[in-house]
Amino acid sequence: MTKCLVKPVNILLTLKENNEHHFTTIKQVYNYKYAYRRSIRGHRTELQHLMMLLDHANYIHWSICHESSDFLSDLFWTHLDSVKLLKALHFVFLMDNTYKTKKYRSLLLEIVGITSRGLTFSAAFVFLASKRENNFIWAIENFKGLLLRSDVNLEVIVTDRDLAWINALDIVFPKCSHVLCRFHINKKVKAKCKMSVSKFEVWDIIMDA
Q1: Positions of the chain with pLDDT lower than 70, given as ranges
Q2: Are 59 and 84 in contact (CB under 8 A)?
Q3: Which pLDDT score is estimated for 176?
Q4: Domains in the chain and their CATH numbers?
């Protein structure tokens, strides 16, 4: 079940459904999952195993290390099928970051493209060591390099209002139109304005607007 990406809580539920006298705990499930993954990884570290999987699956990937050390700081990867799609559909892309979601506390950047039918596809992923402008520029330049042709430019890029991110986009894609994500705008409105509104009826009017 671990190999099929079943969640630990569902694994435990399945075991108990098959045998009501089963005394396995959720901690034991996590321990077995960890041991199983360690057996697959062998002597390799998690990062070495990731790099091996990217090579075996023919992913395109680039990485950079910290100065004067072998510590990998940033990692960019994408699939060949994603490259084919972004070359054909280089019009609208959504770019967003997630923070503090992994034990390494690194930044995960996901770039998502939009098809002519309004569907989405994953164009690229990037692990970044920090939110500095140089890190964003490195990621976007790698993404731009996938287009291969210098005359091909993106039409619209949608992001949140991270100034370092916006500055990096202006440097790499100066002719591209930048649009702020409506989801992030609404999130900020809820966070900043609700404290100033005392009546629920007024708040509903604001949210409708």
Answers
A1: 67-69, 100-103, 148-152, 200
A2: no
A3: 86
A4: 8-41 (no CATH), 46-188 (3.30.420)
**3-state SS track over 166-189:** HHHHHHHCCCCEEEECHHHHHHHH
Give tens-digit pLDDT for 5-60: 899 999 988 888 888 777 888 999 999 998 988 888 888 888 888 888 898 888 99
pTM: 0.73
Phi, psi of 159, rounded to the nearest 5 degrees = -140, 180
d(CA 124, CA 107): 14
Using alpha carbons only, give the angle 180, 76, 142 rounded to the nearest 5 degrees.
70
| 81 closest CA partner among 122, 110, 116 | 122
Distance CA 155, CA 169 (A): 12
Helix (H, G, I), strand (E, B), or coil: what is residue 140? helix
CB within 8 Å of 89: residues ≥ 6 apart = 113, 114, 115, 116, 121
